[in-house]
Amino acid sequence: MKDDRKLFIIIExxxxxxxxxxxxxxxxxxxxxxxxxxxxxxQDSDAxxxxxxxxxxxxxxxxxxxxxxxxxxxxxxxxxxxxDTIKDEISRGSAGIIVQPLPGSQLQDQLRQYAAKVPLILIxxxxxxxxxxxxxxxxxxxAAVSPAESLPVVEADHTGLGQALAQTxxxxxxxxxxxxxxxxxxxxxxxxxxxxxxxxxRQALQxxxxxxxxxxxxxxxxxxxxxxxxxxxxxxxxxxxxRSLTTAGSCAADKNLHGAVLYGIGNSTEAIYYLDTGLVKxxxxxxxxxxGYQSLTEIAKSIKRLLYQPQSQLVSxxxxxxxxxxxxxxxxxxxxxxx
Length: 339
What we know:
alpha/beta; Rossmann fold; 2 domains; six-stranded parallel sheet; six-stranded mixed sheet; 11 helices; 12 strands
């Protein structure tokens, strides 16, 4: 009898605790909720290449009842600056962090520490172990961290982007590139994204007979602008990211690409302009709107659901030529890029 009475008391106490917990939950649900703040940390935050990305995040924030805060940064943002910025945003009460990781050996471990405090997701690229100054991207150095060690990331299929760019060049030349010289332009060479794009590009051209005669890899736009006209004449120039494409487009407009045919990957209104004016032959555009929308949605899910872990996702891309530029299927893309 005494044991039965003890068991009864224990059950009563447990029921009382559960009742109190449920009451607190119901009370909190009935209170007006201030939208949680999610911080976005990207390099050169006001650059036009981020227009579609930020628009996608804004749409997702409205759908998820969250507040998006875009941290103001410059093109000269360093790894140390980026880490300090994330730390500051967490201390100011951000419930989640979305970050474009810069190349750098100390970034991965530090981001993992921050991810243990608040939900965190990467965009555009996985982290790498080296900075742009420590490593030049080649098809033999395209590995970043292993999937088991990686943080969740929403990004384009970078290898596929590089391959698609090479394939459109092959198509335009009927697969005959023997004797043709190609110059490569990269503005973020140390990133995992750039490494994968270059690896995909080189792989697709491996048996084409083309000669990739030079590569310009500069993170600083002024140095990139100065370096391009100094390169030997090439038949084709391929720009592997938005900043390198707009820089190369500007050089072509000033007749400083020595007559090379320009192809590239980009996601800005400037890139569209250079395609429309014929300075770019083919433009491949990653779906930045979806990267923005999906990354913020993943963070919002993690904020709302205690045990939910943000998931990595790959997004698609579009291939644009001058003759299909204003086709109906591209209208949503133009709208997002112009926001």
